[in-house]
Amino acid sequence: MNTVDSHLRAALDLAAAGVPVLPLRAGKVPFGNCPACAKNACGGRPNMKTSGPCTCPRPCHAWAAATTDPTVLRSPEWARAWGEAAAVAYHPGGTGLTIVDLDNAAAVGWAHATLPATRRVQTTRGEHWLYQGIMRSVNGVREGVDVKSLMAYARWLGPGIGAMASLPDAVRALAVKEPSPSRRAPQAFSAPLTGGQRECRHRTPTYLDRGITMAEQRITEARSAVHATVYRTFLAVLSTHGGCGCLTDAHVARLFAAAQAKGESVRHCTDAWTNARTALGM
């Protein structure tokens, strides 16, 4: 099997497992935007900070190009990229994960002494520690340590070893460079969605109530990957119901209650809700 086939096969296997993937060039960098998408002239891809309906079929927009669609991965537009690719990458936040990227032996030693044990993946210079849960990505949280989750990509280096642990507060705290009482994670939710700019789809209250009920059921029925299920459910609710101002604190309280019944803390619920709003540009 040649390198092109090897990269594509790995990408297809990951996509089949629900992991969004993309090709990387030499130097572990993504393929640049095509001329039509240069400097986000197209408006960007969905879930980017500059969200928009970009329909470019190429692997543009770095991490936001990551996909689980095998048709896209095999498409002619991606064929050239696979031919030039040096590696396969994935979007950790898109699959409900956070990676603590440990870039040297000292950083690995710090992690062993400080962080809860979890799944580990060997890298060229250190290790990736994988946790179940999502957060914002931050580079340089300490010497030799980056956090990769939302709006980030990481090279696929194999499944790793060890049982995966839930994302701990010790890792979330790494993203807060100057802790202070005013910057602590909120302990109660807030969902001010008034002033939405999209056309209202809720011709009757029943439509919105049915959507919230289905979301509660999806969370309640989760048997694994609860963190990821809660985030994806919040994302779906906001995408469908959050743009016109009809979604209220009472609706969000129902979602939080369902998540907490599955063991999620208020803080994790708040983080998931905030991350979902950020991903949708709300």
Which descriptors apply to this entry?
alpha+beta, six-stranded mixed beta sheet, globular
Q: Give the helix tally.
A: 9
Mean pLDDT: 82
Radius of gyration: 20 Å
Question: Uncertain spans, ≥5 residues at pLDDT below 50?
Answer: 177-196
Class per helix and strand makeup: alpha+beta
Topology pattern, helix = H, strand = E: HEEHHEEHEEEEEEHHHHH
Strand content: 5-15%
Number of strands: 10
Helical percentage: 25-40%
How does the major sheet shape up?
Answer: 6 strands, mixed
Distance between the termini: 45 Å
Shape: globular
Give the oligomeric state. Answer: single chain
Give a brief rundown of this model.
Helix content is 35%, strand content 14%. With 282 residues, the protein is an alpha+beta fold. Helix 6 packs antiparallel against helix 7.
